[in-house]
Amino acid sequence: MNPRAPAAEPKDVAPRAPAVVPASFPPAELKATCEKILARYPTKMAALLPILHEAQAFGGGWVSPELEAGVAAYLDLSPAHVHGVLTFYSMYNTKPAGRHELWVCRTLSCWRRGAPELRAKALDKAGCTRTGEVGEDGRFLVKDMECLGLCEQAPAIWLDGVAHANVTPEGLEQLMDGCE
Amino acid sequence: MAAKTPKRYPETKVLSRNFDVDKAWTFDVARQRGAYRSLEKALGSMTPDQVIDEVKTSRLRGRGGAGFPTGVKWSFVPKQTDKTKYICLNADESEPGTFKDRYLMELDPHLVIEGCLITAYAVGASMVYIYVRGEYPLSIERLWGAIEEARKEGFVGKKIAGRDFHCDVVVHSGAGAYICGEETALLESLEGKRGHPRIKPPFPAVEGAFASPTVINNVETLAHVPWIIENGGAAFAKQGIPPDPADPRSVGSSGTKLMGVSGDVQKPGVWEFEFGITLRQMIEDYAGGALEGRTIKAVIPGGLSMPVLTGDELDVKMGFDDLKAAGSGLGTACAIVMDDTCDMVQACENIAHFFADESCGQCTPCREGCHWMEKIFHRFDAGQGTRSDLDLLENLFRQIEGRTICALADAAVWPLRSIVRKFRHEFVAKMSPDEQRAEAEARSARQPAGVK
Ligand SMILES: Cc1cc2nc3c(=O)[nH]c(=O)nc-3n(C[C@H](O)[C@H](O)[C@H](O)COP(=O)(O)O)c2cc1C
Ligand code: SF4
Ligand code: FES
């Protein structure tokens, strides 16, 4: 019998830094990283996805219009191209994303193993009426996600970039209570 | 069932040989267990063409879903060209129900990297991009860690293993889009664009990443290559299901395969078998069978994108041709099980939602059709479905399948159509009494007299 690959290595979950608007892109903190990323590809455009990941982490979990414009200028891309990419991929947020981001997998294996109950619990605790919204207290953004690749440990969720598997509604409640 | 299968079909640990070895993702442990020995062998004693021939001999077929012969794919890459050639490792693994590549990347990343480098040597590539879905942070971390270790030890970068072979390896993280697993969408995404599949030809082997010749293979496919180089293609071809002698075009299903089970079973998981284990053996003997007091109603044998088999149709061998002959497909060989408590109308709604959500939107039949199907299933679930809705669905299936740029739309049709046909009674049971009566009348009109 094989050991199960871990869902993730345990990490402390810190609340997000408040959104920062840098005067220009890349901000000093990201300069070295961005240059390292650019060196990996024959075109500047190819650095767009990885740099958007960095920008989003820097910006407090979402890519503000200012950051978006900064990235476009930095990579010599049209703002329309960057916006098109940003809105195509489900991991990027274009609106403030709360202090914590919670994803609930909704796809078949998780659906069979209790995802609907988790979703209801998540929305309830976050005080949201629907997914894709931040609750009134600004604590949680709850997102419906498609298969997270943890189906053998369904149902699966993600909290602030950390996967959790075999989650029960009670377990989810505890995880969410642990978030400021 | 125990009487029919007295002996448990054995596991064969080739790709998974290091899965239960502590810290096999670190260079020292992996190297001790033989990592990079095949790379040294290929660079030291084989020409690139010999490597390709060995892989052709192995009859290795792609493990990403389509099953294309790997050695043949490599031989399409032009030999004479001034352009940089690329390897793109497809580690997007966003097919629902599928988690096998994650095990390889998290537990044995050096094996994955070695496979990429041997491939790069075979086709003359000098750059490897590993496109990992953004939802696999641990895979990304372990791969980067392994790359940096291997670089320090002289297995990545310039003068690999002291030979005149130079190749760099980079991990590229996706950002949440199923379609980026489709090979040309993956290339678009790698280039910094939306994941819109390209019209083929040109095929990636000729014009792929950055308009240069590119080999795209699945993680598991290339993870097989070191073993093939070490033991020879013929040894690999001896495992699994041989080609059908009656069919000259058959390539069979050679070697081992990581297979998984998730959904309504006791012990979901992933195991490695030679092709040939039956779906039932895998589900009952390894995944522990149905949950307490339940029975298995339907299984998708590989991912979400293949037609379902019913609980009575599980005695089929896990193999490319066998599952095709059974009206389904191997797909990713990670099965999703639904038991008798599963409402098949709602299952369709769930599946249709997935494809509607993940359609890239380029082709009208896919973009509109998937949403349309979802709406119809929703109507059934709300008790408002009619017999003509079932006809409408059949019509939609016909209008969508085979009419789009990529296979996502087909992948939506296959499971849904098979459920609608095999579980029609569940759809009828949710119709109004009038509709149900009409259905019963139509049924009895179709039956010859005297037959119940
Ligand atoms: C919608 C769609 C999604 C796909 N997703 C994946 C995927 O996540 N991983 C993968 O390896 N192949 C995926 N494929 C198959 C690839 O297009 C391609 O056939 C494969 O990467 C080739 O590698 P192989 O020959 O080693 O299997 C997908 C195909 C389609 C049409
Ligand atoms: S079939 Fe669907 S996913 Fe594929 S290219 Fe067309 S619209 Fe996009
Ligand atoms: S279906 Fe939820 S992780 Fe795969």
Summarize the structure.
Chain A is α+β, with helices and mostly antiparallel strands and 180 residues long. Helices cover 38% and strands 11% of the residues of chain A.
Provide tags for this entry.
heterodimer; A: 180 residues; Glutaredoxin; 2 domains; 5 strands; 11% strand; B: 452 residues; Rossmann fold; 3 domains; four-stranded parallel β-sheet; 11 strands; binds flavin mononucleotide; binds iron/sulfur cluster; binds FE2/S2 (inorganic) cluster
Write the layout of secondary structure elements.
The complex is a heterodimer of chains A (180) and B (452).
Chain A: H1 28-38, H2 48-58, H3 65-74, H4 79-88, E1 100-105, H5 108-112, H6 115-126, E2 133-134, E3 140-145, E4 157-159, E5 162-164, H7 169-177
Helix pairs in contact in A: 1-2, 3-4, 6-7
Chain B: H1 27-32, H2 37-45, H3 48-58, H4 70-75, E1 86-91, H5 100-107, H6 109-123, E2 127-132, H7 137-152, E3 168-173, H8 183-190, E4 214-218, H9 219-223, H10 225-231, H11 233-238, E5 240-241, E6 253-254, E7 256-263, E8 269-274, H12 279-286, E9 296-300, E10 309-310, H13 320-325, E11 334-339, H14 344-358, H15 364-381, H16 387-400, H17 408-422, H18 424-429, H19 433-446
Parallel strand pairs in B: 1-2, 1-4, 2-3, 7-11
Antiparallel strand pairs in B: 5-6, 7-8, 9-10, 9-11
Helix pairs in contact in B: 2-6, 2-10, 3-6, 5-6, 5-7, 14-15, 14-17, 15-16, 16-17
The site of FE2/S2 (inorganic) cluster (FES) has 12 residues of chain A, from helix 5.
Plain-language structure description:
The complex is a heterodimer of chains A (180) and B (452). Chain A has helices at 28-38, 48-58, 65-74, 79-88, 108-112, 115-126, 169-177, and strands spanning 100-105, 133-134, 140-145, 157-159, 162-164. Chain A is an alpha+beta fold and 180 residues long. In chain A, strands 2-3-1-4-5 form a five-stranded mixed β-sheet, with helices on one face. In chain A, a hairpin with a 5-residue loop joins strand 2 (133-134) and strand 3. The model of chain A has no long low-confidence stretch (mean pLDDT 91). With 452 residues, chain B is of the alpha/beta class. Chain B folds into three domains: 27-238, NADH-ubiquinone oxidoreductase 51kDa subunit (Rossmann fold, 3-Layer(aba) Sandwich), CATH 3.40.50.11540; 241-339, Roll (Ubiquitin-like (UB roll)); 344-440, Up-down Bundle (de novo design (two linked rop proteins)), CATH 1.20.1440.230. Chain B is 43% helix and 12% strand. Chain B contains 19 helices and eleven strands. Chain B has helices spanning 27-32, 37-45, 48-58, 70-75, 100-107, 109-123, 137-152, 183-190, 219-223, 225-231, 233-238, 279-286, 320-325, 344-358, 364-381, 387-400, 408-422, 424-429, 433-446; strands at 86-91, 127-132, 168-173, 214-218, 240-241, 253-254, 256-263, 269-274, 296-300, 309-310, 334-339. Chain B has a five-stranded mixed β-sheet, with helices on both faces. Chain B has a four-stranded parallel β-sheet with strand order 3-2-1-4, sandwiched between helices. A two-stranded antiparallel ribbon of chain B has the order 5-6. Chain B is globular. Chain B starts with 26 loop residues before the first helix and ends in a 6-residue tail after the last helix. The chains are: A alpha+beta (180), B alpha/beta (452). Chains A and B meet through helix 2, helix 4 and helix 5 of A and helix 5, helix 7, strand 3, strand 7 and strand 8 of B. Flavin mononucleotide (FMN) binds next to strand 4 and helix 17 of chain B.
